[in-house]
Design a protein that fits this description.
Layout lengths: L1 E3 L4 H13 L10 H5 L3 E5 L3 E5 L7 H7 L1 E5 L2 E5 L2 H11 L2 H12 L1
Parallel strand pairs: 1-3
Antiparallel strand pairs: 2-3, 4-5
């Protein structure tokens, strides 16, 4: 699972607190400041969570404005718009991301 957060100390602290509440122990091994010092941090517990403070090809504020809302098990969460997902994958430029772009553009 990939998570893009607005790179503020408050957001990083809230994310880590939520992960700790969900009993994801690796969240106890890092501070908000350490999280913000990196573009990506990978947490590996029962599930893998990649937390990104920056993503190639998109800016958080713009992505937030274009976000899509989804509901799963009566919980609301936000995901990148299709256009922002494509822009991010295209900017990453890895073969797997470019293949994802090709498939997304077929839909």
């Amino acid at each position: 699972m990939d998570i893009l957060i607005e790179a503020t100390k408050d957001n990083a602290e809230r994310l880590l607190a939520a992960m700790i509440e969900a009993r994801l122990g690796t969240a106890t091994m890092i501070t908000a400041d350490e999280l913000l010092a990196k573009e990506i941090i990978i947490f590996q517990d029962r599930i893998r969570i990649d937390v990104q403070t920056k993503t190639p090809g998109i800016e958080f504020a713009s992505a937030w404005q274009h976000r899509e809302t989804m509901t799963y098990q009566n919980r609301t969460f936000y995901v990148l718009s299709r256009e922002d997902l494509i822009a991010s994958k295209r900017a990453a430029g890895r073969a797997i991301d470019l293949e994802d772009v090709r498939l997304l553009e077929l839909e």
